Amino acid sequence: MSRLWKLLSGPEDIGQSAWFWVGFAALIIFFLYYPAVITEFEASSISYYLLNIPLALGLCLLWGYAGVLSFGQVAYFGIAGYVYGVVAGNMIGNPWGPLVGSIAGLTASAIIAAIFGYFVFYARVQMWIAPILTLVFTLLLETFLGQTAGYQWRIGSVQLGGYNGMTGIPSFQLGKLVFFGYSFYYYVLIVVLICFLACRMLVSSRHGHVLLAIREDPVRTELFGYDIRARQLVIFVIAAVLAGISGLLYVQWGNYITPTQVGLLQAALPVIWVAVGGRDSLIAVAITTYLLNWLTYALSSAGNQYALVIIGALLVCVMLFFPKGIIVTLARELPRRGWRSAFTER
Amino acid sequence: MPSPNHQEPAARYMDNVAIALSVLYQFGTNGAFLLLSALGLIVILGMMNIINLAHGELMMMGAYVATTAVQRGVPFPLAVLVAFIAIAIFGAIFERLVVRRFYGRELGALVVTWGISLILSQGSLLVFGPFMPSIQIPGGSISVGLYSFSEYWLALITVAIVVVFGLWWLYNHTTFGLQARATMQNAAMARALGVNTDRVYMLTFSLGAGLAGFSGALLAPTTSIMPFMGQQFVAPAFITVVVGGATNVITGALGSSILLSLVRTPIGFLFGSFLGLVALLLAALIIIRLMPDGISAWLQRYLDRWSRIRISA
Questions:
Q1: Residues with Cβ < 8 Å from A184, sequence gap 6 or more?
Q2: A179 FRET partner, CA 20 to 30 A, in A50, A259, B36, B287?
Q3: Which residue ranges make up each domain of chain B?
């Protein structure tokens, strides 16, 4: 038990004090009781803000903890979503179809990430190559999915649908229990919570410590006898699976997916969520992902065309003035280094 | 046109020449396209080890400037020059205000230039609307046998070669080039010897941005003018740069665009342009597996060995 506690409350993320955990518990209780006072539609919007968190956590692990930047996390989001759509769509009527579809989606994401990651990491390329190649990969995926319009692009009874996307994707269900509305909200909450706690345990584990060492000094870590290529590949696959979880939740939430979900604009969003919060803190990333999704939704539903310009400007300002991220600067650097030096990179 | 079975030997010979020319033309246009879309990016990368993710948007802005100028009655070559200068100035300002703060932090630079690209593309969507009437391809076409070749693309191939030659001259025969190469090899040492590295960085970034604008303007007549038109250039440009590497700008750009056009042309011809692009990505993955620092580092080793042999002989 104390071992578990050590893993959950390690120094690699913000928040070890009792007060932090009291606040965390209060937050969970708040989210558990929140649906009692809101409409089903609002609960569904909140599910949407929450379901993006695993995607961001995956990028946080990659970029913040392992020092590998990926611009293509949405590719694995899309792959899982599309594969789920195809598998579950062909098993409509079967009560376990969505579960099989979910497993298939995550497996597909993991396998494709493993193949792609093998070429990138085992080549020992320079730092800037991984982000560029992942970006190119997601752009090609978007182009590919965009040209799948028409009847010949049909797998079983499901049409890929080109730029109009895939529609009529079944909701998640376990046996007779179908998740939508309020029950979907709780399902998302539990999945996101598990992902968050698992990531937190990962960064405090031995594997997590090796990742931190690779980020700080790859050559030295390698001289200690660790295979840094394998470690980077493993974390890349884990991040892809986390992105896949978000993709699954997304298609189960909206029952559709379009190629724009893996496009250039969508690809930018996870990077922004992670950079704004602070890339080396899971809790900071989870919070900013929720808040920025809410902000984007609020801006665009108010008919504001400038939503993406504002989000882009936010990213540039954060990179210029809070290079470590807003929440991390406030929570970690400020108490330690004071006002003056907290805002400059070491 | 007589049917192929009853051709005179001379006519058949002409046809073979035309086929050979057509293949060469395809290679040439693909290579020129890759070279033009990647040049600005690779100049900046080679110098500062920074990938400018706003590259596609700089090309888009170049295309907008040139198109607007042509619609106001400016002759096309002059419009391209205007685009080069305008985007070069923009690049200099961009470097002073933003990029300068990210030297030595490669990933930070990637992310911040991406934020800028988001602002530029979305901003131009709001300012200029989703479409702009594009300009006609200047020049006609030459026909040899059954095939016809666009004069404009032939001109673009020539321009791409001239620009590469110009860059070679700039880097090897001017004071700026000498200082730039010195800064590239060892910035601290160059500073100690009195090179104003700050200025070199600014001018290089400005040159790279200007080249992006220049290429955008040149490619503008061949495509439709939209705020997101940059996207179609970035994937090929990034692959060219990844394959080329940053060790030597000229050999990297030239070597990788030739190599990739050898991959893209047959596959694009047989299976369509999308699979041509996929083949580019697969080729890039395999090439970095074999030469992690790109083709330029690989070529550089041979060049170095060759020059050592010459010195010792």
A1: A44, A47, A171, A172, A252, A253
A2: A259
A3: 23-227
